[in-house]
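testing teh design pipeline on a random one, pls ignore if ur not involved
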């Protein structure tokens, strides 16, 4: 694939993904988060390696990790975007184990919107309402993230699978309204 094909493909992919997340976030009532979603992908630190490792069928981060063993792009991205569970991690100095903190509900909901949009962009014709849930369950991240965050992500994505997008986003919006009123969301 030529540089120009990778450049255009990457711009189309991240822009399509971002626009889908904006639409999904708006359906949930997350207006500001939707508009600010993934803007770091347009920074040179993320954009340049993503064009270099672009393939069109999966995140360039996966290819970068395959080739060099880690991803500068991902380290930059997860440290600036609170809708990723990895943002909510820390290492303790004493025993050096990973501490995963439960995500606040508004970022958890943005994460759901992100997973749905990514599933649509990368899953293409294979996408259905079960796709994001199946991806989550079979991922390494599901076993690593905070247990409450993992449980809640699964519950919200199961709701999508069982009820369809229209009902799911209405449900998510009702939960977000409760959260904004100061209520703890228990799923």
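output:
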């Amino acid at each position: 694939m030529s540089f120009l094909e990778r450049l255009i493909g990457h711009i189309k992919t991240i822009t399509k993904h971002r626009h889908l997340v904006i639409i999904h976030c708006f359906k949930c009532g997350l207006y500001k988060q939707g508009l600010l979603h993934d803007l770091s992908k347009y920074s040179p630190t993320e954009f340049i390696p993503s064009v270099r490792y672009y393939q069109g069928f999966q995140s360039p981060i996966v290819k970068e990790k395959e080739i060099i063993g880690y991803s500068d792009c991902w380290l930059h991205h997860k440290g600036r975007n609170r809708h990723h569970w990895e943002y909510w991690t820390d290492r303790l100095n004493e025993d050096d184990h990973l501490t995963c903190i439960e995500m606040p509900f508004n970022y958890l909901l943005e994460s759901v919107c992100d997973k749905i949009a990514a599933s649509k962009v990368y899953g293409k014709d294979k996408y259905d309402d079960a796709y994001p849930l199946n991806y989550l369950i079979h991922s390494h991240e599901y076993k690593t993230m905070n247990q409450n965050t993992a449980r809640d992500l699964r519950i919200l994505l199961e709701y999508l699978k069982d009820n369809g997008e229209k009902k799911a986003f209405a449900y998510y919006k009702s939960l977000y309204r409760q959260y904004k009123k100061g209520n703890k969301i228990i799923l």
